[in-house]
Design goal:
The protein is α/β, with parallel strands linked by helices. It contains 10 helices and 7 strands. The protein has one domain: P-loop containing nucleotide triphosphate hydrolases (Rossmann fold), CATH 3.40.50.300. The strands form 2 sheets. Strands 2-5-1-6-7 form a 5-stranded parallel β-sheet. It has a two-stranded antiparallel ribbon with strand order 3-4. Helix 1 crosses helix 10 and helix 2 packs across helix 5. The longest helix is centred in the last third of the chain and has 18 residues.
Amino acid sequence: MTVPVIIAVDGAAGSGKSTLARGLARALRVAYINTGLMYRALASASIASGVDADDAERLVDLARGLRFSVRGDDPPELQVEGYGSAHLTTPEVESRVSLVSRHQGVRTVMRDRQRVLGTDGAVMEGRDIATVVFPDAPLKLFLEADPERRAGRRAGERGTSEDAVRTALHQRDARDARTNPLEPAPGAVVIDTTDLSIEQTLDAAIEAARRVWPSETP
């Protein structure tokens, strides 16, 4: 029986998860699901609705009201109805996303949605995909990188100063660690992207996938 192509990609912000996961999904012809967008959409919704980041009950209601789908091609990607990139990458959202995502009720709602989204196969990235969402994923990847390199990458993505990003990442790492310790899941393939190019990182991931799905990988 063919093992479904479900790949869990975990790692810290700026470690290269999004670039790697999108490229891997394209290579394997499956959906790419960035779960961070789901929590960013919730952060944006809470700001727009005036819901306090400590109000777990109302945040759960907001999370249940979000609409997610997988659309497009090369690869198909997660879409959040009513939320484009301009809504999800503001400094306000960046500073709030860890606060709204720390509530267990919120994470339970998102976990259930993520499992449905990945039913037909996906490369799914986040911070707890291999440990919580798909603990039985046939392939688990964990990306790590030097904090300075992570800050430089994120600054380039956001078009902001590296010093500001470095501080924001440090604060976010500390908040996120209280919810999900950033450690590789048992059996995960660890890829240190500090000194790897995008192509080298993708090659390492494809090689890991080839060992699980030899007939599916390029």
